[in-house]
Specification:
Number of helices: 6
Helix content: 25-40%
Largest sheet: 6 strands, mixed
Strand order of the largest sheet: 2-1-3-6-4-5
Length: 164
């Protein structure tokens, strides 16, 4: 997760790819930070909901990955289930950068574009309607993320009201 975003969120955990928990880069930090793995199915969803109900925030990439290019991929509806179960809004954010430093295609043996500049834009806050199915809610969030400027790395923050 980007340090500038993490510094602005109280009690935040990231819900991310399980291989990041076992990879050589970042695995120890992710485990120490209590980040949630996306391969634990309903247990991961329950952990995210419990964290939100306890007053925390959850950051996730609703595509299940970082966006490799300008096109937003299909969203997985699990984030909508988390938001609905915890009765929390979803803050749609977009990260834009001039660098491949944290991108999916970046390799460690190639120097990234530096200096790296990041801009985080708030696109809107959405809340699942009572009885709304996760797929329908995901479609509304997808429309929010696709609106505005060209997508680079959109993601969602499920917040508990303490502010993102």
């Amino acid at each position: 997760m980007r340090p500038s975003l993490g510094a602005r969120l109280p009690d935040v955990v990231c819900y991310f790819k399980a291989s990041m928990h076992t990879g050589i880069c970042g695995a120890s930090g992710a485990r120490l930070a209590g980040y949630l793995r996306n391969d634990s199915g309903i247990e991961g969803i329950r952990a995210a909901v419990a964290h939100l109900r306890a007053g925390g925030n959850v950051v996730l990439f609703p595509e299940g990955t970082r966006t490799p290019g300008a096109e937003l991929g299909p969203l997985h509806p699990g984030f909508g289930l988390i938001a609905a179960q915890a009765a929390c809004p979803v803050l749609c954010l977009r990260i834009e950068t001039n660098s491949n430093l944290l991108g999916k295609a970046h390799t460690f043996w190639r120097a990234p574009t530096v200096p790296a500049h990041f801009r985080i834009s708030e696109l809107g806050t959405l809340r699942a309607e009572p009885g709304e199915r996760p797929l329908a809610f995901a479609a509304r969030v997808e429309a929010c993320l696709k609106g505005g400027s060209v997508a680079n790395t959109p993601f969602a923050c499920i917040k508990n009201g303490h502010g993102c």
